[in-house]
Amino acid sequence: MPTTRVNMDVMPLRKGHFWVLFVAALGQMVGAALSTLVGIILPLIQIHLHPELTSFEQGLVCCTSLIGIMIGSILFGKLSDLYGYLMFFRICPTIIFIASLLVFFTDDIAGLVIGLFFMGLGAGGEYSLDGDYISEIMPNKWKLFMVGMAKAICSLGNIMMALLCFVFIKMDFSSYIWNKLVLIITGIAFLMICLRTYFAQSPGWLIANNRLQDAERSVRFFLGDDVDLGDIANKPQTHGKSKQSWGSLFTKENIPKIVFSGLPWSCSGVGSYGIGIFIPILIMAIGLETNDMMPIERVIDSVKNTTFISIFILIGFLVGLYWVDRINHVKMQGWGFILSGIGLILLLVSYCLHWPLWLSIMGFMIFEFFLNAGPNLVTYIIPPQIYSVEDRGTGAGLAAACGKVGAILSVFMMPLLLLWGGAKLALIISIIAMFLGALITFVVGRKVLPSNKKRSE
Fold first, then answer.
1. Which pick of 70, 127, 258, 439 has the fewest CB atoms within 10 Å?
2. How many other C-beta atoms can be found within 10 angstroms of the C-beta atom of residue 130?
3. Percent of the chain having pLDDT more than 70?
């Protein structure tokens, strides 16, 4: 009896879809875990190992991984368009694995800086690859949701890292544990390497490079022998390596796409990294822990509060996923910026007027909820919608790199802002970034995405 054939564009979800989602989303998880780890390591290092670190040096250390992410996003995004996704899908976690072991065994600032850069380099490659893999495998009705789900899973990295660090520091009760905490990253990277050993090439890339039969085999590998190629088979073929050059990407037609996919992501990076990395330090600066504690106790208490606040990152993403196919993405991103800015305003006013601490915590929660229900989710799913498959890796990598520019500047400046004007100045600059992101979104986004595209290109 002949097997009934199914089209990958309209088929129901199978375990293969969830397998691709899980394996790809681990890249988002390791990147989020790394950002949380950096904010926890810094105060631990300052207690005994390097109390002499200036605010300038603190900023340099913390933004090292983000510089790596920015370079990795551009580099691996372009290389994946040229040589295929699979090789770099395996190389990136290998880089993270080796770099994390370097930090563990060198146990000094130089090893930390080098290790953070290369861990960021690998994580940057993940940001340009993960969404592409997912968007090409999923049925049309699930594309945006599943790409958003991968971004939402990154919040588990924030929560897991904060929770494990809290447990391990509390058990050891020593600041010297800082380099051992990096082994959490090592474990995630090792899992990624194992899972990606038995994997297949991106079918979209194969189609774009005139390898139809290989694309069919790739789809069958992921989804089953009864699955046929869908619309992806009709995509333009480049008959070899991608012809998309950096110069051709910056055309008059593409500039609005670059602005819309990149600059709001940069503003979002101010919140997710500038504030996200320094949540433990901001908590101590604002005074959300008891003042009569020992230094290590203050760090432990701030990490505990960081874990609690990080839960609202996950809740925000989950609510955003519910909205992602129901609300215009321009409105979703723009209003997310505005409402997260309002959360920071509540935090600022509570801090300046010495209102009850629960109001400050609520401000943090509102900020994290709406930032992740809006900009942090939408900026990730925009590139797969607006770039064609033959230059999607390059476009997504460029957008992610733009996001990291804002993250790098904010992370570098945050210790200096805390030095110059305390938590008040740091919060004011962050509020401005949120409203600037909203302005760019509403002005440019309406031209690039006048209405939601239910199906990714």
1. 439
2. 30
3. 89
